[in-house]
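Example 3.2
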Amino acid sequence: MRTVMRHLGEQAVFEIDLTLEEARRRAEVVAALGPAWDPMEAMREEEAAYDALYSNLDAGQRETYDMLVSAGVLPRRKSGHAAD
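Structure, written as tokens:
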């Protein structure tokens, strides 16, 4: 990131490499999750939540879902999922 600051006709250029800060931020997030966090279980739970979200759609909801899929807003759920 590069920022130019001007004050009373003088200017100073400040450059900050955010790569190190982003790596530190990510490490802090993983540390905060703790050693018991299971990313594969989290992904399975997320899939189950999507299955529940798209299950039992009425005709109008199904039409909206299909429109959003066609527009590329939502991915098409694979066969065997509740939205199919």
